[in-house]
């Protein structure tokens, strides 16, 4: 038996094994994802306000009442009422600091109650989204656009991204270890020096997964699905 | 080179390939799951009533207004009010025919609004679950137990089960092809001659997956996760 014959057999074996395993070939990437545990936070309905809208609704700048997990972000003392064509929601959280554009983040459940067909978007991507009416005790402001269902995402630092072998804006699949285990696909990775490691899901996603504060997520490696 | 040496090399190659592929070995089962498309229905909050409770609330037997996807099951003309310690829900659907025990199926979102800590359970498995108050226009009935969040499940006939290579009470993972794709794990298969093929999820699960009537599910083959 010559060397070529042996090599032919070896190649045939490799092909057969790979075929039997469903055609999955190993990822050639040098970067190996670790299975770091990611804290999962539930992001309830909330509003970001522009400086002008904050002034119109509350007469002045927003006031901090509690700091949030992402550095610089805070819950405000101020609260708003959301008014849609089919329903109203009171006592909705306002998050600071103020932004260039006002934005309202609700769940699909909220969207049905308010009667607003809000699309799933990344924060800040509000072009062409539906509007809503915001009310405080002293004023009413109409937004022409800005109502979204926030796309699930993971905040992380460049160091975390490197460790987990992902990059900014990459979409990953994350398994939530919970009472009702799920894998959420199309989770957007957002990398920034100012970010602490945290995955944000909305209340629908939380409820459907039986989320509680102890639930964490794991990024699945590329090519995880057969 | 003798035969044993060649076999040793072949075995080593197979081991290496399998290692590189993440240790996944092929499923030895003779039964191969097909990737049949399963219609996915959203199961909103509803109530099943015992004959006694139906009589107490409505003075007589339940009346059919529309047949449902599962043979023999129907939506009733009668509606009830759910009364929990923190909230009330009006105009809740009653499904017939009446059962041996009354049962209330709500979502986790509903559970929070009502203030009832309902566990995820299969239909019929109500031992030790929380109670609730049901009201009609003519009476009030207190249930000592029976409030559940229905575990996601798939109804199918024995023929479907054979084709999809699953059995009654087996838990499978199902991918929903949707705006926000998810894989729901621990989906219970329920096999019965009287069942039509249909997966039932609750509104939280539907909203978190961006469900609409066009969304279907696919059972993932065993050992699908690396």
From TrEMBL, chains A, B:
<dbReference type="GO" id="GO:0051144">
    <property type="term" value="P:1,2-propanediol catabolic process"/>
</dbReference>
<comment type="function">
    <text>Involved in 1,2-propanediol (1,2-PD) degradation by catalyzing the conversion of propanoyl-CoA to propanoyl-phosphate.</text>
</comment>
<comment type="pathway">
    <text>Polyol metabolism; 1,2-propanediol degradation.</text>
</comment>
<protein>
    <recommendedName>
        <fullName>Phosphate propanoyltransferase</fullName>
        <ecNumber>2.3.1.222</ecNumber>
    </recommendedName>
</protein>
<keyword id="KW-0808">Transferase</keyword>
<dbReference type="Pfam" id="PF06130">
    <property type="entry name" value="PTAC"/>
</dbReference>
<dbReference type="GO" id="GO:0031469">
    <property type="term" value="C:bacterial microcompartment"/>
</dbReference>
<keyword id="KW-0479">Metal-binding</keyword>
<dbReference type="GO" id="GO:0046872">
    <property type="term" value="F:metal ion binding"/>
</dbReference>
<keyword id="KW-0012">Acyltransferase</keyword>
<dbReference type="GO" id="GO:0016747">
    <property type="term" value="F:acyltransferase activity, transferring groups other than amino-acyl groups"/>
</dbReference>
<comment type="similarity">
    <text>Belongs to the PduL family.</text>
</comment>
<keyword id="KW-1283">Bacterial microcompartment</keyword>
<dbReference type="InterPro" id="IPR008300">
    <property type="entry name" value="PTAC"/>
</dbReference>
<keyword id="KW-0862">Zinc</keyword>
